[in-house]
Amino acid sequence: MLSFEHLSKTYADGTRALSDINLIVQEGEIVALIGGSGCGKTTLLRLIAGLDRESAGQIRLDGEVLSGPHPAIGIVFQEPRLLPWLSVSDNIAFGLDGLSTAERQARVSHALEKIGLVEHADRWPRDLSGGQQQRVSIARAFVTNPKVLLLDEPFSALDAFTRASLHEHLLSLWEETRPTVVLVTHDVQEAVTLADRAVVMQPKPGRIFDELPLTLARPRDRTGLPFETSVRRVLTALDHSLKAPQAQPQRERDRQAAALWW
Amino acid sequence: MTGQAASNAWSSHEGAAALAAPTSTEKRRAFDGRILLGFFLPIAIALLWEAAVTFGLAEGRLVPPPSRIIATLSALAETGELWTHAWMTLWRVLVGFIIGAFSGIVLGALSGSSKTLRQLLDPTLQALRAIPSIAWVPLFILWLGIFEASKVALIAVGVFFPVYLGIAGAILSVDRKLVEVGHVFRLSRVQLARRILLPAVLPEAVIALRSGLGLGFMFVVAAEFMGASEGLGYLLVDGQQMGKPDQILAAIIAFALLGKLADSLLVAGTKPLVRWQDTVRERL
Ligand SMILES: Nc1ncnc2c1ncn2[C@@H]1O[C@H](COP(=O)(O)OP(=O)(O)OP(=O)(O)O)[C@@H](O)[C@H]1O
Ligand SMILES: [Mg+2]
């Protein structure tokens, strides 16, 4: 179980990227974080991954307060971030240093099979297409069997068709060990395809606006009516989240004006 | 299942890549043609000059024709003189290069990887760099005598600065995004240096070493000008004093070949380390 308690992050330049985030993600749950640009989604993932420090509040994984990168947490960045000097299979094996050679090879070849890149095992990353590179980076995160997997818009740079095929690769990897997944996305369809719950965020300061359960049965039929309905629900929430900030400062200003008046 | 369809789609992507492949070989062939084009001008000039001297249009005393230069070179090679001189020069460059490159790598790595050390070391080294290296010559001769030690020291100084700057700069410019990958997998400082920083700086380190080697060859000439009885630089001075322009040109050609040979050896030796990165290198 991953939980956030009064989590806030203010950057050195005073930007309030996150303010008072409270959320509980159940074990094995897939949560999609959706929200406009700059509402702190990446910041939240970086805090969980231990790449940045929170300004206030805390994150717990199964009760343990996180401080710094945790071995049970893996992350897939928006760019593949493969190490260009390692072959595809060595990239996948990057986090498996502690294991025996046999175990390492077994895991890597299994992952290669899962992502359909067996014949590319010995190539350099630069010889792969963008979608293939992103698959390798997903495999690199999965082979360590993380309890929590963080995905920051991993498919946003890809075309719709490649994206759909990567969704399947991702779900088939997820089926095996059922890690907790926090997925950042701009794509409502993607959220409804993959997630058990959509968390809609709002900027300035970054906070949670709404949570919507997505309880469709898996595998999900993207053409069915329930899917359409869910997409529309999330879109509506997203719409409100984008409109609300204008309403709120207005009220705030009125109150300040009133205070001055008196 | 759709997974099947997706993988088919992937193989069709690869089919497209295979179709695209011939363009790169075509490009390479066009490139080869252009290399040959580069030979045209010097060969044409050499032939014209040769003809001009043969037909008495020019005297060719101060600017000897190619045939005379080649004759001088082969005469020097036959007596074995050429090899002693070339070997002496190469030896000086090699020793100076090893000393300069080693200290450049060590200090560059220190100042690239620790802010405190950089603030301690860098200002002094930058100040020293502002001194034209040849200006050290009188001091080196006083300190180290006029024989090998002072020559090697001058070459080492010449090699040191480009290597130091290249290594420190390369470490500072390592992509933060890749370093974060190391953090996520909780690498220790040593592991991070070995598994991410070192491979990431290798391409730039090779470039730094190459420019260091180039400067080494520049400084060996200066070093051999300041009094040597052996070395290609000595052949140059001797040719000037004896009025033998063909010997000077022969030595210059030997310098060019030796420099190119050393550079190619360095490139070939480091190629396996940076093969993943050959896209840029192939153009160098
Ligand atoms: N290193 C930083 N220093 C200062 N401010 C930052 C830094 N990183 C992000 N911010 C600010 O924090 C806020 C949230 O940024 P974040 O990258 O988390 O947004 P996001 O939700 O991921 O946006 P997007 O969907 O565009 O990726 C933004 O206003 C951004 O300008
Ligand atoms: Mg982001």
Annotation field: number of helices of chain B: 11
Amino-to-carboxy terminus distance of chain A? 49 Å
Low-pLDDT ranges of chain B? 1-27
Estimate the mean pLDDT confidence of chain B. 83
CATH topology of chain B: MetI-like fold
Helix content of chain B: over 70%
Helix share, percent of chain A: 25-40%
Report how far apart the termini of chain B are. Answer: 48 Å
Just name the CATH architecture of chain A: 3-Layer(aba) Sandwich
Q: Decide which structural class fits the backbone of chain B.
A: mainly alpha
- Work out the radius of gyration of chain A: 20 Å
CATH class of chain A: Alpha Beta
Percentage beta strand of chain A: 15-25%
What sequence of helices (H) and strands (E) makes up the elements of chain A?
EEEHEEEHHHEHEHEEH
* Shape by Cα distribution of chain A: globular
Task: Say which CATH homologous superfamily of chain B is assigned.
Answer: MetI-like
Strand count of chain A: 10
Q: For this structure, what is the CATH homologous superfamily of chain A?
A: P-loop containing nucleotide triphosphate hydrolases
Overall outline of chain B: globular
